[in-house]
Design brief:
Layout lengths: L8 E9 L2 E10 L4 H16 L4 H29 L3 H12 L7 H15 L9 H14 L2 H19 L15 H5 L3 E2 L2 E2 L5
Antiparallel strand pairs: 1-2, 3-4
Helix pairs in contact: 3-6, 4-5, 5-6
Amino acid sequence: MANDQSVSARFKFAFRWDGKISWYPCGTWPNASVEQIRRQREEARELVRSGVNPNDHKKAERIENQAAVEATIARVAAEASQNSPFRAMLEVWLADGVARKDGNAELRRSFEKDVIPTLGDKPVRHINEHDIRRVLRTMVARGVNRMAVRVHHDIGDGLHALETCLMLESFAGFVHLSDDVYSMPAPVDGAPQTPIE
């Protein structure tokens, strides 16, 4: 009997497991109807007949449900990260993914001068090899061919580091970009190895 004088009854199904009596909770009346309680009992009885402990079965269901919730949360977080602009990826990479002798000063300068104006506000998930070529084409036209080669490698390194989860804590599941972004030929001697479209 509860404090408010209402009556409730808990029902358990008794079964033998490993030579001992075990109990499986089937529900509390009136929170659960008699039909629901009976259904729980019959399901537990069938599990025992098939060699499955109903208590273990219930725990396994809870674990699976929790795993499904966590997977959904991870998927939503990954989608949010993939929708982040390139400049956000750059900040994460410069802070946690690369450490050059100059404190990444030259890397930041070259990206802010040549990459951010073109890619800065574009969501990372939408960046493709044509976007990278646009950056490199602009640099080659300016006559900074060696810098274009370095920037090409740096962009690939930054995207690849994030994709392979080196930045998992900061940018979980950041993005899966086409291998074309990484393997695209860099400009050599003032011209790309393949035609820029």
